[in-house]
Specification:
29% of the residues lie in helices and 19% in strands. It is α+β, with helices and mostly antiparallel strands. It has an eight-stranded mixed β-sheet. α3 crosses α6 and α4 packs across α6. The protein starts with 8 loop residues before the first helix and ends in a 13-residue tail after the last helix.
């Protein structure tokens, strides 16, 4: 017997059901290449000739060796242009802090659901920060196999720690420190990506709001074990609205990116962060950097937890449009000017009106 939809996916997963509710079953057109994340990762690892996400070592950016630094900038440019996603190593965030972040996130989700509900968000009233589950907001009305906790982690003066988890006790300390260290990485990457476009180092960061207004929004995604991973998705296929997105995970596979006409499973590389190019950066670069289409698989064996941090410009005060320097040679703009909020609404309209949307493989705005 198919279970009724519970308020939280965690409750559903722990109920002992053998079949998932119809609301979680993806449309048949999506199920052709779905499967258990572990099995898919294993196949990808065995296919040594198949495409693999690029890995960029950032150490050269601060090595003092100018030739090595320029080579690293070129690697970043190529990865952002050809893939729109990459692993980065030697990023500068202390491994001990990364492990502590994983620990406090897991400990929060290990709390009883009743305890987590104290932090529940209320999307209907506009309270988006807090504990929640993905609501159906697309034409098919399908749900995603995940619960999450969402909140702002930087700039310090804009965060509201009163809505952050009080348990575990070191959650606030660890997460705030991670936000500060990640902002250093964001600056480093945006400088290099600016150079990759032939721009001054500070251009992209400034265009996105700078240290004062560029927001780092963290979403801890909790994907419970799923009895039918060939029918469900943890996250449906989409591009991010952000400029850059950073992904950390608990070494359980699941992320897939769309590249060269097929889905490629991201490897789990210790001490690496995954970086996505999002819509905002694609717009500023006039399409030179690609906003990557990606999705999340689920599995039968292990809970997957990922920490996604979205670097977002302020909603109303900055106009996203192709940078003038990139149009100086007569290149036409590929995107109309929009505020970040207008871009969000445009994307929601396309999602809710599939006939107005571009095909998934070309989903770039």
């Amino acid at each position: 017997m198919v279970a009724k939809v519970a308020s939280r996916v965690e409750i559903l997963a722990k109920s002992g059901l053998s079949e998932i509710p119809a609301e979680y079953i993806r449309p048949e057109s999506e199920r052709l290449d779905l499967g258990d994340a572990f099995e898919t990762a294993k196949k990808g690892a065995e296919d040594q000739l198949g495409p693999q996400l690029p890995v960029v070592d950032l150490q050269a950016l601060e090595s003092g060796d100018e030739a090595a630094r320029r080579a690293c900038v070129e690697e970043l440019r190529r990865a952002a242009s050809e893939w729109g996603v990459m692993h980065i190593t030697n990023h500068g965030i202390k491994p001990e802090l990364v492990e502590r972040l994983r620990k406090v996130g897991k400990e929060f989700f290990d709390l009883p659901v009743e305890e987590k509900e104290r932090y529940a968000n209320d999307q209907a009233s506009g309270k988006i920060q807090g504990y929640g589950s993905k609501l159906a907001n697309n034409a098919s009305g399908q749900l995603e196999w995940q619960d999450y906790f969402f909140h702002l982690i930087f700039p310090e003066e804009k965060i509201d720690v009163s809505i952050w988890p009080k348990q575990p006790e070191d959650y606030i300390e660890v997460t705030a420190e991670f936000g500060k260290q990640l902002r250093v990485v964001v600056t480093k990457l945006l400088e290099a990506l600016s150079e990759g476009l032939g721009l001054e180092k500070g251009t992209l960061d400034s265009e996105l709001g700078g240290t004062k207004d560029l927001l780092l929004q963290m979403k801890i995604n909790y994907y419970p074990v799923c009895p039918q991973p060939d029918l469900a998705l943890g996250v449906e296929a989409h591009t991010d609205i952000s400029a850059l997105s950073f992904i950390l995970h608990n070494m359980v596979p699941g992320l897939q990116v769309f590249y060269d006409g097929k889905w490629v499973t991201a490897e789990c590389i210790p001490d690496a962060l995954i970086v996505h190019v999002g819509d905002s950066l694609e717009i500023l670069s006039n399409g030179r950097y690609k906003s990557v289409l990606h999705r999340g698989l689920v599995n039968k064996e292990k809970v997957r937890i990922s920490w996604a941090v979205f670097c977002e410009p302020p909603k109303e005060t900055i106009l996203l449009r192709p940078l003038e320097e990139l149009l100086a040679d007569g290149t036409p703009p590929n995107f109309p000017p929009r505020t970040f909020e207008q871009h969000i609404q445009h994307k929601l309209f396309k999602k809710n009106n599939p006939e107005a949307a571009t095909p998934p493989a070309n989903a770039t705005n």
